[in-house]
Amino acid sequence: MAQLRQDYEQFVAREVEVVVVGPEDARTFAAYWNKESLPFVGVPDPKASVLKLYGQEVNLFKLGRMPAQVLIDRAGLARFVHYGHSMSDIPSNSELLELADRLNQEYA
Protein backbone atom coordinates (compact mmCIF):
# COMPACT_ATOMS: atom_id res chain seq x y z
CA MET A 1 0.00 0.00 0.00
CA ALA A 2 2.95 2.30 0.54
CA GLN A 3 3.66 2.03 -3.17
CA LEU A 4 0.12 3.12 -4.03
CA ARG A 5 0.28 5.98 -1.55
CA GLN A 6 3.55 7.21 -3.07
CA ASP A 7 1.97 7.86 -6.49
CA TYR A 8 -1.64 8.30 -5.46
CA GLU A 9 -1.90 11.77 -7.01
CA GLN A 10 -0.85 10.33 -10.37
CA PHE A 11 -3.69 7.81 -10.16
CA VAL A 12 -6.14 10.58 -9.26
CA ALA A 13 -4.92 12.68 -12.20
CA ARG A 14 -5.86 9.77 -14.48
CA GLU A 15 -9.28 9.41 -12.86
CA VAL A 16 -8.30 6.04 -11.38
CA GLU A 17 -10.06 5.07 -8.18
CA VAL A 18 -7.77 3.01 -5.95
CA VAL A 19 -9.64 0.49 -3.81
CA VAL A 20 -7.83 -1.81 -1.41
CA VAL A 21 -9.62 -4.87 -0.06
CA GLY A 22 -8.29 -6.44 3.12
CA PRO A 23 -9.06 -9.56 5.14
CA GLU A 24 -9.63 -7.82 8.48
CA ASP A 25 -12.94 -7.15 10.19
CA ALA A 26 -14.40 -3.64 9.83
CA ARG A 27 -13.13 -2.35 13.20
CA THR A 28 -9.55 -3.57 12.72
CA PHE A 29 -9.50 -2.39 9.14
CA ALA A 30 -10.80 1.09 10.01
CA ALA A 31 -8.27 1.43 12.83
CA TYR A 32 -5.41 0.57 10.48
CA TRP A 33 -6.72 2.91 7.78
CA ASN A 34 -6.98 5.81 10.23
CA LYS A 35 -3.58 5.10 11.80
CA GLU A 36 -1.86 5.07 8.39
CA SER A 37 -3.94 7.97 6.98
CA LEU A 38 -4.36 6.18 3.67
CA PRO A 39 -5.85 8.45 1.00
CA PHE A 40 -7.67 5.81 -1.03
CA VAL A 41 -10.73 3.66 -0.46
CA GLY A 42 -10.38 0.64 1.81
CA VAL A 43 -12.90 -2.18 2.09
CA PRO A 44 -12.82 -4.84 4.81
CA ASP A 45 -13.52 -8.34 3.52
CA PRO A 46 -13.42 -10.66 6.56
CA LYS A 47 -15.61 -13.31 4.89
CA ALA A 48 -13.38 -13.31 1.78
CA SER A 49 -16.30 -12.51 -0.53
CA VAL A 50 -14.21 -10.35 -2.86
CA LEU A 51 -11.31 -12.78 -2.63
CA LYS A 52 -13.54 -15.60 -3.87
CA LEU A 53 -15.13 -13.46 -6.57
CA TYR A 54 -11.75 -12.63 -8.13
CA GLY A 55 -10.02 -15.93 -7.36
CA GLN A 56 -7.35 -14.42 -5.14
CA GLU A 57 -4.99 -17.01 -3.64
CA VAL A 58 -4.66 -17.67 0.05
CA ASN A 59 -1.41 -19.32 1.12
CA LEU A 60 -0.94 -19.69 4.85
CA PHE A 61 2.74 -20.53 4.38
CA LYS A 62 3.23 -17.10 2.75
CA LEU A 63 1.39 -14.97 5.34
CA GLY A 64 -2.18 -15.33 4.03
CA ARG A 65 -3.73 -13.59 1.04
CA MET A 66 -1.43 -13.16 -1.90
CA PRO A 67 -1.58 -9.73 -3.54
CA ALA A 68 -3.83 -9.22 -6.52
CA GLN A 69 -4.27 -6.14 -8.67
CA VAL A 70 -7.28 -5.69 -10.92
CA LEU A 71 -7.87 -2.75 -13.24
CA ILE A 72 -11.55 -2.40 -14.02
CA ASP A 73 -12.56 -0.10 -16.84
CA ARG A 74 -15.39 2.41 -16.88
CA ALA A 75 -17.76 -0.23 -18.25
CA GLY A 76 -17.05 -2.49 -15.28
CA LEU A 77 -14.89 -5.00 -17.17
CA ALA A 78 -11.72 -6.38 -15.61
CA ARG A 79 -9.09 -5.39 -18.16
CA PHE A 80 -5.93 -6.33 -16.26
CA VAL A 81 -5.46 -8.90 -13.52
CA HIS A 82 -2.21 -9.74 -11.75
CA TYR A 83 -2.08 -12.43 -9.09
CA GLY A 84 1.10 -12.23 -7.02
CA HIS A 85 2.99 -15.34 -5.97
CA SER A 86 4.51 -13.60 -2.93
CA MET A 87 3.81 -10.50 -0.86
CA SER A 88 6.34 -8.54 -2.95
CA ASP A 89 5.08 -9.75 -6.34
CA ILE A 90 3.14 -6.68 -7.44
CA PRO A 91 3.26 -4.59 -10.62
CA SER A 92 5.05 -1.27 -10.41
CA ASN A 93 3.02 1.91 -10.24
CA SER A 94 4.48 2.96 -13.59
CA GLU A 95 3.09 -0.20 -15.18
CA LEU A 96 -0.35 0.37 -13.65
CA LEU A 97 -0.33 4.04 -14.66
CA GLU A 98 0.64 3.11 -18.23
CA LEU A 99 -2.27 0.66 -18.37
CA ALA A 100 -4.61 3.34 -17.02
CA ASP A 101 -3.41 5.73 -19.72
CA ARG A 102 -4.17 3.14 -22.42
CA LEU A 103 -7.64 2.49 -21.00
CA ASN A 104 -8.34 6.22 -20.79
CA GLN A 105 -7.30 6.62 -24.44
CA GLU A 106 -9.86 4.00 -25.43
CA TYR A 107 -12.59 6.00 -23.72
CA ALA A 108 -11.46 9.40 -25.07
Sum up the structure in keywords:
108 residues; alpha+beta; Glutaredoxin; two-stranded parallel sheet; two-stranded antiparallel ribbon; 5 helices; globular
Write structural notes for this entry.
This protein has helices at 2-6, 8-13, 26-36, 49-54, 93-106; strands at residues 19-22, 41-44, 58-59, 64-65, 68-72, 78-83. The strands form 3 sheets. Strands 1-2 form a two-stranded parallel ribbon. A two-stranded antiparallel ribbon has the order 3-4. The protein has one domain (2-106): Glutaredoxin, CATH 3.40.30. It is globular, with a radius of gyration of 14 Å. The chain contains 5 helices and 6 strands. With 108 residues, the protein is of the alpha+beta class. The mean pLDDT is 85. The termini are far apart.
Chain-averaged pLDDT: 85
Number of helices: 5
Structural class: alpha+beta
Strand order within the widest beta sheet = 1-2
Helices and strands, in order, run as: HHEHEHEEEEH
Reported for the largest beta sheet, the result is: 2 strands, parallel
Total number of β-strand segments?
6
Assembly state of the chains shown: single chain
Alpha-carbon distance between the two ends: 29 Å
The helicity comes to 25-40%
Topology-level CATH name = Glutaredoxin
In terms of topology, how is this protein built?
Blueprint: H1 2-6, H2 8-13, E1 19-22, H3 26-36, E2 41-44, H4 49-54, E3 58-59, E4 64-65, E5 68-72, E6 78-83, H5 93-106
Parallel strand pairs: 1-2
Antiparallel strand pairs: 3-4, 5-6
